[in-house]
Structure formats: structure tokens, C-alpha cells
Amino acid sequence: MTSPWLRVLDLCGQLECDLNTLQEAVATAWLTHPNDKIREILEQLDWDMDNSIFLFGLEEKKQQEFREKLSTVVQSRPKAVDIKFCQECNNMLYPAENKEEKKLKYVCKQCEYEEETDDYCVHINTLAQEHDGLDFVNSDVASDPSLSHTRGNFKPCPECGHQDAVYFQTQINRDQSAMRLYYVCCNPSCGHKWTDMDKTDEL
Q1: What is the Cα–Cα distance from 23 to 53, expressed in whole angstroms?
Q2: pLDDT tens across 136-154, in order?
Q3: Beta strand pairing status for 53-54 and 114-116?
Q4: 194: helix, coil or strand?
Q5: DSSP reduced 3-state for 52
Q6: What is the CA radius of gyration of the chain?
Q7: Strand, coil or helix: what is 198?
């Protein structure tokens, strides 16, 4: 959701929010970024669409209610963008700008079909940070008798130089097919953990 509604949220969170300022912010946000869910919230609070005012004001309790309901819409993040299809020829619709009305619409490149939308999210870029998974490895596994030991068959512990470590193999997450080896130093005073995906053939 874009900045006009975020400004409304910010105003609602202020202890002494000026009603006129809030009404102007709501009117601006509604004019540029209308939304069906927000319309329902405004109607519950007796918002006059024609005059851009709350008919019975907005006492502190209602202001808090407005903020809570609005935040669920404004701060929500969809996990995926739905693919839309033309109702005339079943080809995929593409997002386009209605420059005159400053609105988003979807158009078909094969025919002249188009439709308006109040969903302004057309692309989601999810950034996933890769981690080595060592945070989930407990150093106590060094005393697990069921695990294999390196015992000099691998380079010593990079932390203390101890020649013995236990190791096991697992996936970091379900999306990865590659397996990774985890090592835990058997030196009781060390317990260092490390991983090396390139050393699976050396054991």
C-alpha cells in the first residue's frame, strides 16, 4: 500500500490528532488510492464520501479503532500476485496505467478488453537471506555416540586445532536439494561449529 494511507495511519497514531487534518488526509488518500476494504471501514465510521468528513466526528476510541482496522489493510503484504486473464479471449492481462484518471488497469494485448482494479500490487520481489544453519546446531551433539567422527581424516578444528570432530549431513531447507555437512569440535572446552559443502568427498 502506498504512502497516502500510511500518512493517515501516522495521523491516527498521534495523541492529539487534528480532525480537519485527518479528514483532509483521508480525502486525499481516497481520491488517489481508493480501496474496497477501506471503503467498508470508512462506512462503519460514518464517513461522508461526498463531503469528505466524518459525520459524527471521530472520538479517541473510534480513532483507535480506525487505526487498527486500517493497519490490517495498509500493512498487509500479499504472498503472490494473481494472474488475470481476459474474459473475451482468455489471454493473460497486463498492468497498464490509465493516465487520465491516474488509476491502474489491466489490458489484453490480443483484443481491446480492459478492466480496472483497486489492487496496486503488480510485482512482488521476495528477498531471502541465505544462512548456514549453524544457529540450529547444538554443541552437545559432540557427545552423541551415534554420530561419525573425523579423527584426523579431515582438517583440524579451525578454532582450537583439535583433531577430532563429529559430523552429520542435512539440508538447510526443503527448497534445496544439495546436502551440507556440519562439524562440531569434540574438544569440551571448544565446541566450535562449522560447515563446508565442498568437503563431502574427503570423508
Answers
A1: 6
A2: 777 788 888 888 888 767 7
A3: unpaired
A4: strand
A5: coil
A6: 29
A7: helix
